[in-house]
Amino acid sequence: MCPGWVKASLRRFTLPFKLACSVSFYTHPLTLSHSFLSAQKTIGSYFYSTSVYANCKISKKFLPTPSFSCSFSQSASLFQSNHSCEPMDLSELLEVLEHLAPLSLAEPWDNVGLLVEPSKIHPVKIVLLTNDLTIPVMEEAEAMNCDLIVSYHPPLFRPIKRLLQRDWKQQLAIRAVKAGIAVYSPHTALDSVRGGVNDWLIGGVGSGRVSVLSQAASSIPPSHKLEFTVRNQEELKMTLAELMDAGVKLPYTTTRSDDDGYNVCLTCPDSVLAATVQTLSRYVTPKESLAILQLTKPPLPGCGQGRQSILDEPISIATAVHRIKSHLGLSHVRLALGDQHTLESEVTTVAVCAGSGGSVLQGVKADLYLTGEMSHHEVLDAVAAGTSVILTDHSNSERGFLSVLRERLSVRLSDSVSIKLSQRDRDPLEIL
Ligand SMILES: [Zn+2]
């Protein structure tokens, strides 16, 4: 690629970027219209703005995820009418789960979605929500004749070459199959989605202006925009006919150029780029005028890993500890005071990451980090940078969101489905 093309790509970025964003909003299953995502662009991230969902005409199954700025109970109450008692099968339930947290938002290393599928198709009557699928939770599921376990963490993560009883995770998979229980995991898709686990976590510290730490991008395939000129209508027809013959089916736009020719603009996916360029290179005018612009995947405002909040009203570290304990239902958390901090030091900016936040929080400037776990050396780094750290133990920073998930599911599922929170699921670590 010549340097001129690179320059053109940068110069022209603004318009396609906005256009592509607008398209992705409409196709994003969590959103109903562009107006719901009136996000305000800032440098490298997006601050949330208040969204109101009250006036939407939508089917119950595809209700939008409540905005972070609404209280979850208020949002749910908007949609509690029209309950049906129709039986729901697994595929319908999976559709609802996918719309609550699109799996395309999950991290590439993750293993999300349907992990165990029973062979018998029957209506789903009982859904069990758990943070971790452990042996006690499986016993609980079997005892209640559960049909679907939604386990936030994927119980199957690494590739499996055999299914043996001596491995406790493989044994769980065997038991699920035997009992006809499906297993589904949303994991990092639920962390990332707007209004998901990380938004819920940071909401416990107090209201504020929230931005995403690691911005998620649209899942649309990478593509290029090609612009070239043809001398006349005849050449335009021939060029397009050749592209069609080469199997390239492209939407295109044309505008008249100053010298009676036509400027043609095509957007093509990377998979057909080489064939398209090869075809165009057979014609002198298109070849000499050809400009290729790489289109970047647009960011999805409000979605991604980790969150940062600039609090509406600064609080002390002691108050932050109190609020977090109360939000997560914990009697204890661990605190590392940042350099020069005391319990009365002011907290204005907070960064959170549910679960294990070391990598996402690394280097983020904030008065306070909140996460489930960080390594000793990651905590030392934060403290030396003047950031206090609150650790809750891994799953204690995630589990409380299951109640929110149950609420969201209950307004979207038929009354024939009973949604239960596991009573046996808990963090394996205890502070005595
Ligand atoms: Zn986790």
TrEMBL record:
Biological role: May function as a transcriptional corepressor through its interaction with COPS2, negatively regulating the expression of genes involved in neuronal differentiation.
Q: What Pfam families does this protein map onto?
A: DUF34_NIF3
GO molecular function list: metal ion binding
Key words of the record: Acetylation, Cytoplasm, Metal-binding, Nucleus, Phosphoprotein
Q: Does the keyword Transmembrane helix apply?
A: no
**Cross-referenced Gene3D superfamilies:** NIF3 (NGG1p interacting factor 3)-like
Cytoplasm as a keyword of this entry, yes or no, is yes
Q: Which NCBIfam families match?
A: YbgI_SA1388
* Name recorded for this polypeptide: NIF3-like protein 1
**To which protein family does this belong?**
Belongs to the GTP cyclohydrolase I type 2/NIF3 family.
Question: SUPFAM superfamilies, from UniProt?
Answer: NIF3 (NGG1p interacting factor 3)-like (SSF102705)
